[in-house]
Amino acid sequence: MRTLALALSLVAAPGFAEEFAARAAVSAAPTAAAPARYRLYAGAKLGLVHPFGVNAVASLLDGGRQAWDVDLLWEPSGYLQSYSVGAGWHPLSGALYVGPRVRWLQFGAPWERGFSATDNHLGLSAEVGGRWMLGPGDKGLLSVSGGATWVPTQSGTLQWLLGLNVGFAWRVLER
Amino acid sequence: MRRAPSLLVPLLLLAGCGKAVKEAPVNVSEVAGGPTAASFSSELGLEARDVDAIQPQYGAGEDGTLAGVDGVQLHYHVQRVQDAKGAVVLLPGRTEAVAKYAEVMFDLNAQGYSVYALDHRGQGESERMLPNRFKGYVKHFDDYVTDLQSFVTTVVLPEQPAKLFLLAHSMGGAVSVLHAAKHPGTFDALALSAPMLDISTGAFPAPVASAISLTSCGGSDGTDYAVGSGDYKTETDFENNTVTRSATRWALKVQQLEDNPRLQLGGVTYRFVCESLRACNRAQQSGAQNPVPTLLLQAGADTIVLPQAQAKYCAEAPGCQLSRFDGAKHEILMEADAARNEALAQVVRFFNHFAAEN
């Protein structure tokens, strides 16, 4: 009872309400959210020389701005299949990126008649493009890129492959 | 053209790697005897001889069909001679029908060789695989190789030829080297005329041409005509033709196609281009796996296929020798007499060398 009486006397004390409100406001004020360090996107692309592909992009951020990307890309095709991992550096901390890509290329698909081990080739690409984070909370990622792939094969016609891609991915994770 | 034995040879032998060392290629210029360029048909009076002798001999040959991959009916033509030194399997190039080789068969018969010629699937008198019979199409390039093996095993080998040779032109050359890598014991020797081991993309830079084709093939069934291709059109411009300097042989070919519309073929589909790109890539990697003695005839003024790919292949194939014909256009065996007959003389001397072996 004594405690309750003390509490009531404090509430009734002049200035208490104002001080309480001020303290409450301070404790409820949003602390400045730590910026995300990376985002993970999953999406698809259209383009040439591989008409279609699916990918996962990890976008590493620095102070909330794009710094580096790493992506895994599978471009299935009956004629030129590619499994690849690419890296992108955003030199201006914006959408623009440049980077290399290492490909495992198959001139043909293993499920097609006539496929042989000699259809497998390494490919090394150089890419330049842009990755724009879009939408509320940067949940979308629009990509446009162009590049060239060098294939160390004996066929001169297939030694250089050009690529042009447009893709869209959706954020699935942010930390 | 004989390559000097490498200094590595004794080391390899000492190391027990003798199997890796192949016999040096036969040099046709050193084969004694045999025909010379003058031994063959010439452009002089060719039109008349075509009517009087060549076509009657072709007509007396045997025609038949066999089922290729997926049951596609393949046409073949056989011209036998008595007591043949050997059998020559003849594979034409893209668009060509075996009937175009009547003069070559005539000459080979005269040199004592029976000839077994096969029309590739989708061209000549063989079955087409698309409703538009002008479209140059193949589902899998490897089907040509399988068809060739079927032809050899079901038509040629049952006749037990003394020796078995292969003479192939352009696309037939690509089929041949892929076949040699897959079935190395089939032929005693190969003669390849301007083999298609890499394709010239003409006005298009190679990366652009391959990008257009591979994108189209990846995104569709590839049955559309490739850019710049279309249905058969009668050729009228000899001066700008890219295959021969012989006006006589060129005119005979054009006339043959006009007289026999079933032999006509138009341009290529995307699928054909993609399959050919892939096949060329494989073919170029297969040189080391071709143990068969090979004579590669290279056209010095070829604009259809890339001579550098032929040189590379021949450098890697242990039994290959390259013979270059400066100034010759793509169809060496349809060229003007000087190149055509020297090429045929080399082929026959090359085959004679192996025909004489027991």
The biggest sheet of chain B, with number of strands, parallel, antiparallel or mixed sense and barrel status, is: 8 strands, mixed
β-sheet strand percentage of chain A: over 45%
Classified in CATH, the superfamily of chain B is Alpha/Beta hydrolase fold, catalytic domain
- Count of individual domains of chain A: 1
CATH hierarchy: architecture of chain A: Beta Barrel
Form type of chain A: elongated
Head-to-tail CA distance between termini of chain A = 50 Å
Helix content of chain A: 10-25%
The rounded Rg of chain A comes to 27 Å
Query: How does CATH name the architecture of chain B?
Result: 3-Layer(aba) Sandwich
String of helices and strands of chain B: HHEEEHEHEHEHHHEHEH
Summarize the structure.
Chain A has helices spanning 2-12, 16-28, and strands at residues 38-48, 52-62, 65-75, 81-89, 96-106, 120-134, 140-150, 160-174. Chain A is mainly beta. Chain A has one domain (38-174): Porin (Beta Barrel), CATH 2.40.160.
SSE arrangement:
The complex is a heterodimer of chains A (175) and B (358).
Chain A: H1 2-12, H2 16-28, E1 38-48, E2 52-62, E3 65-75, E4 81-89, E5 96-106, E6 120-134, E7 140-150, E8 160-174
Antiparallel strand pairs in A: 1-2, 1-8, 2-3, 3-4, 4-5, 5-6, 6-7, 7-8
Chain B: H1 8-14, H2 46-59, E1 62-67, E2 73-79, E3 86-91, H3 102-110, E4 113-118, H4 142-156, E5 164-169, H5 171-182, E6 189-193, H6 206-219, H7 247-259, H8 270-285, E7 294-299, H9 307-316, E8 320-325, H10 337-355
Parallel strand pairs in B: 3-4, 3-5, 5-6, 6-7, 7-8
Antiparallel strand pairs in B: 1-2, 2-4
